[in-house]
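ligand=magnesium ion
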Amino acid sequence: MSFINYSSREINCKIVYYGPGLCGKTTNLQYIYANTNQAAKGKMISLATETERTLFFDFLPLSLGEIRGFKTRFHLYTVPGQVFYDASRKLILKGVDGVVFVADSQIERTEANVESVENLRTNLGEQGYDLDKIPYVIQYNKRDLPNAASLEELQNLLNPRGVPHFEAVAPKGEGVYETLKAIAKLILTELKKGT
Amino acid sequence: MQPQMVMYDEEFQQISAVCERLAREANAKIVFLVDKNGQLIASVGATENLDTTSLASLTAGNIAATGGLAKLIGEKEFSILFHEGEKDNLHISIIGGRVILVVIFDTRSSLGLVRLRVKKASDELNKIFDGLMKKVQVPGAGSPFAEITDDDIDNLFSE
Ligand SMILES: Nc1nc2c(ncn2[C@@H]2O[C@H](COP(=O)(O)OP(=O)(O)O)[C@@H](O)[C@H]2O)c(=O)[nH]1
Ligand SMILES: [Mg+2]
């Protein structure tokens, strides 16, 4: 839930990157962190296992600039993707303003993608959110791999609502900022409606 | 879903004053307030060399995780957490079920003193947040973003 601070003239919003294990959520944040200038970012925090798998969350605070005299700040979180971390995923979704679903384009990961979207819908529902109503974009990551499914197949499977979607190669930054901008824009547009 | 969180200057001054006094009376190094989603509301004390944004996010994560644990064993939530370090200690408490109050203190204070002062400050903060929530629910207290245009949003991303 966005936090409007009239006193410091700031608006804070929370974006969660969701998706199956190893789809590239953490890589998205790492790329953004590495390529944003110092003044606009805070420290990136990764609560990870010794093998660098996300254990609880990654966190990256970003400032995007001002709108009408209000600083816009976005807090980016990733969830741990493995099925057994479901309890943690639910916690991280609390107070979310917008979700990026990162799909792993590899054909072998089709089922994992579908399960993860269903899991997202369920967990959002438990918090009183409807996946069909909140700001939501999809990123098809790992487009560089030879075993990537076609965009059309992925769209049919994962994007019945026709939300904005982006093809990405996260380690190279392809599609990373486009995805971030799209979700930030949807969130601000939602704020404008004043829900 | 949680209600929209807002902060106005008037309440911010009141909240800061309560935190300042708490820090003084509890002999604490730092006092800060965070909302349950990890956003910093106020901080007072020796915060110059402290990454308060990260602190806020991790505090909320900590509360969320222990809250999850509480539910698993049939508790509503753990309303007070205490972390003891070699030099500094953290006292974390939930106020009115919605905001998190964190006090960092060392040997110049004690857990007993911090507890006592936190209790008093919590009641005061609770009242301020009650008032704040009522203000937010008044119709007409609309978002400052109602007026923004698509151009304003596009301009954010124009560099
Ligand atoms: N080839 C390729 N590898 C990727 C891509 N995105 C991420 N990876 C790799 O996939 C692995 C898992 O990425 P990570 O971001 O940790 O996944 P997470 O579990 O979703 O956080 C890492 O070794 C990444 O380097 C991509 O677009 N293409
Ligand atoms: Mg990860």
